Amino acid sequence: MYRYDQHDQQLVDARVAEFRDQTRRYLDGSLSADEFRHLRLRNGLYIQRFAPMLRISIPYGLLSSAQMRMLAHIARKYDKGYGHFTTRQNIQFNWPKLEEVPDILADLATVQMHAIQTSGNCIRNITSDPFAGAAADELVDPRPYCELTRQWATFHPEFNWLPRKFKIAFSSSTKDRAATRVHDIGIHIVRNAAGELGYEVYVGGGLGRTPIIGVKIRDFLPEADLLSYCEAILRIYNLLGRRDNMYKARIKILVKEMGLAAFAEKVEAEWTTIKDGPLKLKDGDLERMKAQFSQFELDPTAAEDGSYAQKLSEDPAFAAWTRRNLKDHRVPGYKLVFLSLKARGVAPGDVSAEQMDAIADLADRFAYGELRATHDQNLVFTDVRQQDLYPLWQELGRLGLATPNIGLLTDVICCPGLDFCSLSNASSIAVAEEIFDRFEDLDYQHDIGSIKLNMSGCMNGCGHHSVGHIGILGVDKKGEEWYQITLGGSSGNDASLGDRTGPSVERAHIADAIQTIVETYLKERLNEEEGFLACYRRVGMPPFKAKLYAESQA
Amino acid sequence: MSILLDRHGQRLEDHYPELAADQSVPANQAVLVPWARFGEIPENSKAGLLLPNTTDVLALPEAALRLPLLVLEFPSFADGRAYSQASFLLQRRHYPGQLRARGQAVVHDQLNMLRSCGFTQFQLRGDQDIDLCARLLSNQPSASTLRRFPSLP
Ligand code: SF4
């Protein structure tokens, strides 16, 4: 965990007081509704279809058990007993009362949490690899870099009134688990040929109405220049980004309209003049940042345990779970453990207050008191000894958090959609449930293998549909819910946008359509090794299209 | 009557009446000239210059940087372009004069940000509580002023 120092705490406390004052001025009429809207959004507070929605920041997805207990408390005291983890590694509460939000923020501040810049046209939560610090394929731990960037971005006086929201993601591993190419700025921490650390920088990626994959603006940026380079990009964007049309206001449109070369030229010119100024990282800056993260000693004897192997051979259900829901840790004898938030009958990403408390207890017992939120709306314990896996699995099973479906078809990414969001055209959660029912048979799912199904209730794309291997987008057709399907998207290293299959599909046929697509894949694939994405990229749209529309017309 | 505050919340007298459309730019008098009429400002003028937030300040003629006052416009509450114009003027063009913010964003909830970006004068929007704004600038640390990273050199 990053632990606040006195300064960090003061800043968050000051924001609580400021927001309390802004709320008071709104309620007594001295602050207009429109201006309060801008200010409350910058503090994560939306007015939704049924009630306000409060989005709480979880920087780079990292949570302590104490913070998780506080979220449980908030769910119980101010909400209807649950919270919703989002694709931004944040958590949302859907039913707080406007008047009580300052109190919620004050509660959050006691455990070093806040809702600062979780919405509005400013720099949003910095996201990263949920496996940071534990991944086997990691170059360095990206979190100190994320935290530095977070502190730079927090209340940046110049960049609080941007043309549109701005998202930054970090990756430091061979496999990009942070979807960096669909962020306004995507940063890969790399080592150059001379052995120095630095960054490969991507710019202009983003989902939403006009999804675009980010392009590389710099092959290698020296380690000390992280913040000055970001500052240069933001400055050019703030001045030149479009403000006449909110659908063209993201940096991706600016980069596209100007051309990468012209945009990069302006950024470089600005960066050259500021790079040796106060934003240049000094020796020790990163070290100090690292030191503010709590350290824990991993057990050097963890790999000697024999009980894990024994349980694997004794209990096939346990073995099935380990195959899907565990990932390799950089240290032998340890595993990363996924807590699946995609159980039957539960909206993807939803967690009840009771589950939150229990998860916090399990984190204390088995995972050094820490957990992560992932961008595909699950939770992860990053450091679990193999001898603890069996008891942990049993506990998770009791909590409904051990569905062995990570990376499978039912591990759907899904926005809150019609149920909560005022912008939605179509229900996403209900469709996710229908698909769950259809594909629940795990043997069948295992046969299908790894596949990403992403679903959004409208063009804003909070459910990342355009980078799903299969994407589903809710559209409105004369007041009815229809669904547009895309195939072949990816948010990984080989990021790509999905292609539309053709005309949209009506509500009653969506689950059939997904089944048709899956069956077509099973028929077309060369062998079990060829995953959905690879197969689609090889055979293209025609076989899928032929099946899909032949059947829906029949 | 618009109210002008300095960086410490002190009231300032506005010595720069806006140039009327039918008035010519006086030779040696403080007056606020719109960007469209910049060409009419004589050398060594005491005039101030009003810049729209779409002006490319990197391309601003040197003569403009010798003027004692530049006024940057905030046409709406949420349009933050002039914040970055200020950064460019101070960091890239090393403008030494007074930098005034005026318009819809010059309100209590943005004063600290404006100040952090180097503005030296604040022409408060008409509906603002003057005492509250003055107090904010004179003493209260706010969340945004507690930030660790200074933008200005
Ligand atoms: S994708 Fe649309 S419907 Fe879904 S949460 Fe985002 S804005 Fe709402």
TrEMBL record, chain A:
Keywords: 4Fe-4S, Heme, Iron, Iron-sulfur, Metal-binding, Oxidoreductase. It comes from the Bacteria. Residues 119-273, 411-548 form the Nitrite/sulphite reductase 4Fe-4S domain. Residues 53-109, 347-397 form the Nitrite/Sulfite reductase ferredoxin-like domain. InterPro entries: NIR_SIR_4Fe-4S, NiRdtase/SiRdtase_haem-b_fer, Nit/Sulf_reduc_fer-like_dom_sf, NO2/SO3_Rdtase_4Fe4S_dom, NO2/SO3_Rdtase_4Fe4S_sf. One of its GO terms (molecular function) is oxidoreductase activity. This is Nitrite/sulfite reductase. It comes from Stagnimonas aquatica.
Automatic annotation (TrEMBL), chain B:
It holds the Pfam family DUF934. InterPro entries: UCP030820. This is DUF934 domain-containing protein.
